[in-house]
Amino acid sequence: MSVLPGRIRFENPDVVGKFRASKYLERKIMEAKNRAKRYFKTLLNIAAGAGAVIGGTYIFSRIKEKQDADTRLERMEQIIDEIAVEDEEFQGKKFKAKEVAE
After folding, report:
1. What is the rounded distance in angstroms from the CA atom of residue 27 to the CA atom of residue 20?
2. Which residues cross the membrane (predicted)?
């Protein structure tokens, strides 16, 4: 067998001069080649789909994580504001108590 660009030539004595056998072998080789292409394409589509799902899940989790962090920060700011207001009220009462005591 020798391979030429775009064509396979069989030099086997069982095939030489037998057009039908040569055509049959070429057809079988092309069918196998096309089958391999089809399997590879299917595998590639599955891999691309899995990659898209994993990528989408990762992006979604990062967005959710950021939203959770923002929510926690907002809650912490509210707590600090409440503590500051309570501290101001306490300082005011303490100051008034000093004035009354004097």
Report:
1. 10
2. 43-61
